[in-house]
Amino acid sequence: MTISKERKAELIKTYGKNEHDSGSAAVQVAILTDRIKELTEHMKSHKKDFHTRRGLLMLVGKRRRLLSYIKGNDINEYRELIAKLGIRDNIQ
User: Fold this and answer.
1) Among 9, 32, 50, 51, which is least packed, fewest CB within 10 Å?
2) What torsion do the CA atoms of 80, 31, 54, 68 make, to the nearest 10 degrees?
């Protein structure tokens, strides 16, 4: 259920300012989005896995808070990020 080192490095390179920028909000959102997609696929076949469901909901909440932070600081960066990741704009 975790992301491989190679995949994480690829996400950091794509969404970060450089190869070592793993802490910026955009990179964190990209990594969380990748994990959320994996867990969503897992939940489709394991409907009664409530421990994973709780973890998934916690990840979604964390991503939502990070997106809210990005939207508050730079609306253009927010719009570009959600367009790249293919997620909906539902942050108030």
Assistant:
1) 51
2) -30
Q: Most distant CA pair in the chain: distance in Å?
A: 40
d(CA 11, CA 5): 10
Any residues with CB less than 8 A from the CB of 89 and at least 6 apart, and which? 79, 82
Q: How does pLDDT run across 13-34, given as a tens digit for each residue?
A: 999 999 899 899 999 999 999 9
Tokens of 57: 């909901």
Domains of the chain are: 5-85 (1.10.287.10)
Tell me if 28 sits within 8 A of 66, measured CB to CB: yes
